[in-house]
Amino acid sequence: MKFPSPVSVSWMSEFLDAKVAGNTRAEILGINEIHRVEKGDMVFVDHPKYYDTCLNSAADFIIINTDDVNIPDGKTIFIVTDPFESYLKIVQHFSPFLPASKSIDDSLKVGEHTIIMPNVFIGKNVVIGNNCIIHPNVTIHDNTIIGNDVIIQSGTVIGGDAFYYNTKKNRPVWYKKMLSCGNVVLEDFVEIGTGCMIDRGVTAETRIGQGTKLDNMVHIGHDVTVGKNCLFAAQVGIAGGTIIEDGVTLWGQVGVSKTLTIGSNAVVLAQSGVPSSLAGGKTYFGYPAEDASIKRRELVWIKRIPELWKKVMES
């Protein structure tokens, strides 16, 4: 999330009641999570395991709960007791929840020849391009950007909150919601089936590339990037932070784990599970998803186990 205008280190330190070390003259452009940080961004870290990752990331500003770290040149740290609570305070200030007062917000920008059917909900600061069709009972949450020639079928939700929680087992409620302030971008010629769910990014964007087609009941998690001309069949689920490159086909009920990459033009056959990255240009099957030709030979051998066991026992 980018701030409306750059924020000074002194303002932020006072806002967070934080002690500051490092570069105090720079200006903060926004806040992001570690997977999506850019130069000028702020990020938070509350576990020693990730201190170095955050300090050496693209982020120039780090909210942290210790001063016993080496600060890279030019960077700034804000030392607080609970960095996660500081993150929540920043998001609530710059991107507060504002309840809707009508089904379609007055801020909507819509292109020519676009059709919005009855019973559609559209939140604040949404942009929809030309020649789109938004079918009944679609929900489009705040800050969504939709290109030209996009079709969204009934019952789909675009821009719901990320399924993303800060976990601490020393508090009564272990899982505390990490507030979402990102958005969803649907590029030109995207088609979304009925009953699909595309979560917005935590602090950045979830993006569906040009020409990609989603069947019914597909779930796309937060901060996922889907390339151009992909094809996802019914009940595909993709976890947060994953990158799906151009031309990938995922057949029915494929499950994809978080923060991995599926290479261009890969095909994953139905009911497969993808726990780690896959190279492009191949066909995969099974769990864990592997080269489909190898997996099929494995299945043949598995079926022969009783026969082989019988021969062993008779010998």
Kindly summarize this structure in a few lines.
Helix content is 15%, strand content 30%. With 315 residues, it is of the alpha/beta class.
List keywords for this structure.
single chain, 315 residues, alpha/beta, Udp-n-acetylmuramoylalanyl-d-glutamate--2,6- Diaminopimelate Ligase, Chain: A, domain 1, UDP N-Acetylglucosamine Acyltransferase, domain 1, 2 domains, 4 helices, 34 strands
Describe the overall structure:
This protein has 315 residues and is of the alpha/beta class. It has 2 domains: 2-94, MurE/MurF, N-terminal domain (Udp-n-acetylmuramoylalanyl-d-glutamate--2,6- Diaminopimelate Ligase, Chain: A, domain 1, 3-Layer(aba) Sandwich), CATH 3.40.1390.10; 109-293, Hexapeptide repeat proteins (UDP N-Acetylglucosamine Acyltransferase, domain 1, 3 Solenoid). It is 15% helix and 30% strand. The protein has helices at residues 9-16, 51-55, 83-94, 292-314, and strands at 2-8, 19-22, 27-31, 41-44, 61-64, 76-79, 109-110, 115-116, 121-122, 127-128, 133-134, 139-140, 145-146, 151-152, 157-160, 165-167, 175-177, 183-186, 191-192, 197-199, 205-208, 213-214, 219-220, 225-226, 231-232, 237-238, 243-244, 249-250, 255-256, 261-262, 267-268, 273-274, 283-285, 290-291. Strands 8-11-14-19-22-25-28-31-33-34 form a 10-stranded mixed beta sheet, covered by helices on one side. An 8-stranded parallel beta sheet has the order 7-10-13-18-21-24-27-30, with no helix packed on it. An 8-stranded parallel beta sheet has the order 9-12-15-20-23-26-29-32, with no helix packed on it. The chain is globular.
